[in-house]
Amino acid sequence: MLPNFCYLNLNIFPFSKPLEEIMSKEWGVNEMSRLHGIEDLNPELIKFFDENKVKLRKSWILIYWWDDRFAPPHTDGDWFSDDIIKKRRCGINWNFTPGTWVEFYDSTTLTPYKRPQDLLNTFWLGTSNIIDKWDTTGPVIFNSQIIHAVRGMDTAGRRISCTLRFYETFESLTEKLKNFTHE
Hints:
By secondary structure, the chain is mostly beta strands. The chain has one domain (5-9, 33-182): Jelly Rolls, CATH 2.60.120. Helix content is 13%, strand content 39%. The protein is built from 4 helices and 13 strands. The longest helix is centred in the N-terminal third of the chain and has 9 residues, at 43-51.
């Protein structure tokens, strides 16, 4: 069985400028994610992926997720599609908010559905057991097709994280970066 996420030994800050500058544009009340261009990434990080023949997409997602409100379990992208890009099968994530984590769930008792207000994810209805938990800052290679949800302590409020996206599957990304991973 494949892991749900894989720790990455990579000591490169992901952005080309401080997080405060990346976050500086005001967020709407219900806005939870924003696409950013590759120009906002650290050139050293881009070079790392190039040297390891990892196909980085030209945009990445800054996430400002409510972690003190119920969030239904979801998978990233269109789970119903056969297209790997639409499914967003993997990413590399950093978490910038202490006291928050991502829980992963067993899919055997859950049913997928789409919500009209969120076309970027597939949501899952039902009750399930937690099978794993990512609660560090990262970076981690994240299998976003395993059902997951952001959780946090009541004091955290909103979780700031980012997801770099790739033209890779979770398996191919993990294989290409296996010399930089650890448990």
